[in-house]
Amino acid sequence: MELERFVKEIASPQRQPFYLLVGSNPDSLDIAIKAAKGVVSPGFFDFNYQSFKTEDADWGQILEDAGTGPFFQPPRILVVKREKYLVSELERLSQFLLKPNPDNTILLIAENPGDKLKFFKDILDKNEEVDCRAPQKNELPGWLMKKATQKNVSLTLDGAKAMIDRLGENLSQLLAELDKFSLYPGPNVKLTAKEIASLVSLGPTAIIYELAEPLANQTVAEMTEVLLDLEENAEPFPLLHSVASHFLKLIKFKLSLETANPESLGSPTPLGLKPYYFSKLKAQAEIWSWPRLTWAVETIQRAYRDMVTVSTDKAVILEELTINIATRLARP
Question: Which 3-state string (H, E, C) describes 210-253?
């Protein structure tokens, strides 16, 4: 069962007394739990919503509560999550589900149930589980296109890849962006990589990749614009950490280019990078000479120490750092 179907079903008269939520994707699990909480009457929430997420939760108490009618207004929701489930516990649950309380619903979360236990195997064989698994990296563009179609958004494969490049792999953020597209530009506009580039703002990870070029090219106006974009998405201290990590990554990339087979440099696969990040790092590696690159890293490290030891506003330290690097590189 897809997550979207569960969200609709849990709020409908077709709500079932038991659901198995399979997977460890925090975004999907959060959506499922919020949907379940949403059906509980607010006035009786403390009585009719129970969460058992510890290994020492008493299984007998769980089943007793699951068999007790809700307080005044149904339904009662019980969420159970454990790292491991005992065969004896699942056997008791199987017996209980032969005659469950129709006003109550149990959500059992199993990150990786497998098929060794009969209880899980029977559910998985019938495809009755709620899929909360995170898509693999190579599956993410196809997954995003499928979600786009469900929202009446026309998204091409290169458009999906561009969204992931610009926003990262957070499913909630990607889905939120699709929701915007369903309103504007609307269902009849095909969204390719070109359209995505104009519609989707870069996420913090992608913006970091945009900062090194204006620094090296001494385009202070562009550098300032990128820095302001960064400051809107993150606090100065973690932002500086990300900048430092990027420059260290740039050093490793430059070394890799100098030692790699020249014929393989046009492909992102050998270095395990997406096309967007590969092209950015390749261009930056050609701009930054070794003396300037090592000097920049040392300057970033000094700014990092200042943020820890000096009382100056951290945003000011970050701004002074970028200006310092840009003006220093402008000298012959």
Answer: HHHHHHHHCCHHHHHHHHHHHHHHCCHHHHHHHHHHHHHHHHHH
Give the domain extent around 147: 137-199
CATH number of the domain enclosing 304 = 1.20.272.10
Examine the domain organization and report whether 152 and 96 are in the same domain: no
pLDDT of residue 322: 73
Three-state DSSP state, 12: coil
pLDDT (0 to 100) of residue 270 = 45
- The count of structural domains within the chain is 3
For residue 40, the model assigns a pLDDT of: 94
Classify residue 217 as exposed, middle or buried by CB count within 10 Å of its CB (0-12, 13-18, 19+): middle
> Residue 216: its pLDDT value, please?
60
Please tell me whether residues 43 and 160 are part of one structural domain. Answer: no
Question: What is the C-alpha separation between 315 and 230, in angstroms, rounded?
Answer: 11
Q: Looking at residue 95, which CATH number applies to its domain?
A: 3.40.50.300
Of the candidates 215, 220, 185, 187, the residue with the CA atom closest to the CA atom of residue 200: 185
Residues 120-134 have pLDDT tens digits of 888 877 767 898 887
In order, the DSSP letters of 290-317 are HHHHHHHHHHHHHHHHHHHH--S-HHHH
CB-based contact 292:216 (threshold 8 Å): yes
Measured between alpha carbons, how far is 150 from 133 in angstroms, rounded to an integer? 18
Task: Tell me if residue 146 falls in helix, strand or coil.
Answer: helix
The stretches in the chain having pLDDT less than 50 are: 262-265, 268-270, 332
Question: pTM here?
Answer: 0.50
Same domain, 220 and 248: yes
